Amino acid sequence: MTASLIDGKAHAAKLRADVRHQATRLLQEYGLQPGLAIVLVGSDPASDVYVRNKVRQAAEAGLASLEHRLPTETSEAELLALIEQLNGDPAVHGILVQLPLPAHINESKVIHAIAPSKDVDGFHPINVGQLSAGQETLIPCTPYGVLLLLRNTLPSLEGLHAVIVGRSNIVGKPMAQLLLSEHCTVTLTHSRTRNLANVVRGADIVIAAVGKPRLVRGDWIKPGACVIDVGINRVVENGEPYLVGDVAFNEVVEIAGAITPVPGGVGPMTIACLLRNTLIAACGSRG
Ligand code: GUN
Questions:
Q1: Mean per-residue pLDDT, 209-230
Q2: pLDDT tens-digit readout, 38-81
Q3: 164 Rama sector, left if φ>0, alpha if ψ -120 to 50, beta otherwise
Q4: Could you tell me the superkingdom of the organism this chain comes from (predicted)?
């Protein structure tokens, strides 16, 4: 059996087109252009690429994107002052501070400082709490993108056993909450999980979000399972740089029913969901 490929690029293009359509309507009917402020502190090369993509795609979707690039030596107080200013700016509906931050800045303090109504990452404790209570809120972009791919791939999620590999605040934990709301049976695994391969063998849905190249092997997969690879790992093999996921694609594609490629799977959905969250935040600001 060869798995069908889940085309994240195509799904993301459709989502971006929907956002663009709705942003145009918002502008025409209410004179409101959703604004997304993106803050990058320092010059991490991977973060630089992500931020450039976010700014470009926001503009293409008809959003106003406001980029703030600050030097590495920016103090925590200076960053908090910028967030305070963006919180009070009526032209800014969404605020994203690219992570990771330089070591001298307390990430948690920064996340707490963002107004929950503008927290398009869904990282503020108020939004995290609302998600875990099953209430409407701004949902973290990567897990929401994964959920949209699953809904498009499977006829129903109800009662399926989902095994998530990785318990990060950005992906693993919110993913578990979202899948519980979809009536999945959820197992959240991590680096201390005993006999991980056996746990994954019971999964109808596998979500790998752990940052370890090709950790999930072909013989871990129940035949026909749906496998979502959130990993983006930069490796050098035979002197060539590659992007590889957390799933050993060449093995798993022979066993799974459906699988996301890396790149071109989950990655494009993350930014599309960020644009969607900015639109939702702007709609909320109309009262
Ligand atoms: N760095 C890696 N992923 C993310 C994300 O989803 N949001 C932010 N703000 N920073 C990130």
A1: 98
A2: 999 999 999 999 999 999 999 999 999 999 999 999 999 999 99
A3: beta
A4: Bacteria
Active site residue 121: yes
CB atoms closer than 10 angstroms to residue 60: 13
Tell me what pLDDT residue 285 has: 73
Q: Which residues contact 192 (CB under 8 A, 6 or more apart)?
A: none
Note if the bond before 100 is cis, omega within 30 degrees. Answer: yes
Give residue 287's pLDDT.
46
Q: Is 232 annotated as a binding residue?
A: yes
Angle between helix 266-284 and helix 45-60 axes, rounded to 10 deg: 60
Q: Could you report the predicted ipTM of this complex, rounded to two decimals?
A: 0.97
Average pLDDT score over residue span 99-126 = 98
Which residues in the chain belong to E strands, given as ranges? 4-5, 35-41, 64-70, 94-97, 161-165, 185-189, 205-208, 226-229, 233-237, 240-244, 258-259
The CATH number of 141-267 is 3.40.50.720
Domains of the chain by residue range: 31-115, 141-267
CATH 1.10.540.10 for domain 31-115, yes or no, is no
Q: Is the CB of 95 under 6 A from ligand 1?
A: no
111 lines ligand 1 (CB under 6 A): no
Instruction: Tell whether 164 is in a known binding site.
Output: no
Residue 44 backbone phi and psi in degrees, to 5: -60, 125
Residue nearest to atom 9 of ligand 1 (CA): 98
Instruction: Note if 222 is an active site residue.
Output: no
87 C-alpha to center of ligand 1: Å?
A: 19
Q: Is 168 annotated as a binding residue?
A: yes
